[in-house]
Amino acid sequence: MSIVVVGSVAFDTIETPYGKVKNAIGGSSIYFSLSASYFTPIKLVAVIGTDFPEKFCKLLEKHNINLLGLKRIKGKTFSWEGRYCNDLNRAETIRTNLNVLNKFLPELPKQYRKTKYVFLGNIDPKLQLKVITQITDPELVLCDTMNYWIETQKENLLKVLKKVDIIVINESEAKQLAQENNIIKAGKKIISLGPKSIVIKRGEYGVFYMNDNTILSIPAYPVENVKDPTGAGDSFAGGFMGYLIKSINENKNKNKLNIRNIFNALIYGSIMGSFCVENFSVKSFIKLNYSQINRRYNEYIKIIGLNLK
Amino acid sequence: MSIVVVGSVAFDTIETPYGKVKNAIGGSSIYFSLSASYFTPIKLVAVIGTDFPEKFCKLLEKHNINLLGLKRIKGKTFSWEGRYCNDLNRAETIRTNLNVLNKFLPELPKQYRKTKYVFLGNIDPKLQLKVITQITDPELVLCDTMNYWIETQKENLLKVLKKVDIIVINESEAKQLAQENNIIKAGKKIISLGPKSIVIKRGEYGVFYMNDNTILSIPAYPVENVKDPTGAGDSFAGGFMGYLIKSINENKNKNKLNIRNIFNALIYGSIMGSFCVENFSVKSFIKLNYSQINRRYNEYIKIIGLNLK
Question: Is B226 part of the contact surface with chain A (CB cutoff 8 Å)?
């Protein structure tokens, strides 16, 4: 079973201490989809301009990503320019051109509307709402958001949160949304706004999960050569949700959100994030295969001590 | 078997968003000793002034901390004043008065010199050297240091590192010492300076261990009500080394530094750090008992997924 994904498609111009790329392909929906596609098929809902290369659409399709919901409209694709200095945890935005994203009104193809699993990527909460209301009977909905929407679209964002099962969010944004500096307090507050559980992404430090009666915390897979952190959070979310859906489908009789599945999903999410940062743009995902993912899983398990028990 | 500990004893004046204490007892050797005393006996090497309360010495002795090496000299005890704002990971130093620490020349009691296990707490590297050269046949030596010594005493610090088995150090200071921004690269570089392994303390994010062929990483035990982070790093080191020595003594035939012991030592270190931050000064340790430590161990194991495998 597949995941309907809505989010941005972008041309990214990025500078880090390790190099620079110009108009490379990115955007929340692209990172999520490529990452999740290693676990489950994807149905993409997004908008691109006339300048978006057909060749890249072919690559997405090769990754089991359905493009019926990818709308090409007149104009330029959304673009972003950013820079990371020594602190690879923090991007400085130099320029954002919304372009076709300004005119985007997601209309789901009929074939998408009965999908049970939905990821509302980082995009205007109004668009997230527009997508979720078109899904007939959603079973598991995840969402992400960012500081900009917390500041400018709080009301719509709160409406989204009421419809969401799991929110996946950066630590600084979780604290901003909850107006709490402590991660446990922030998690509790956000859960009280609607989601049954919260995944807080802590960049190179790992990831923190919380629901009403469980806390899980894992450190990130340590990467020695980080080239470009862009997309790491969406790649995490793709691996996390992709693995969750895969394990729900493989274990039809079990509780779909048991803690073991969630824990493993956090691990696979972190692995996908770690591959993402090892190269610029989506380069890591172009040649990535399952045996590399499994090899990293086995290394990771040792690093976090799971082989010792 | 016991650990010889050298480090500071201090009167701390601390302000955090959750309160203020004035001239409370602190210092690296005190936090380390109280924390480690839950696992193994301690022999303390430090200096205090005439103003240091006898009552507190009694409390240390009750914790199985031998005070033969605690020298009382004329003058005032070392004192420090600091403030934490919203970022509890960073202290702002308002005032440091070295006082008797200026005249400190550690002279180890005869009964201390045959001790096999040594912790060189955060103190002038010259004093760390002076202690280690008085130990007849050290088997396992750990050290800590800080930015001030990296900047002003690099040469002596490098001499210390040549005599040390494990360095326990903050992440920012590891990066400063190694002049590397990546944690794996910083770890490798510091290992090349002498220590067989390195423990990098990441505050509320956890702790990272590395030797020539192993990496371990664990997230911190999440604390909902942090009151005062002062001493957390030394309390971590005390729990870490205390547990290591306890497990060496309990398993005489086994390799003293096997990965399972080190992993558990990281967990016990983190637990002791988590108790430390829940109260001002050393208050948490005054009433702490083993059953509380064990209870937290069992919770922690679930949070980091060790019960799932």
Answer: yes
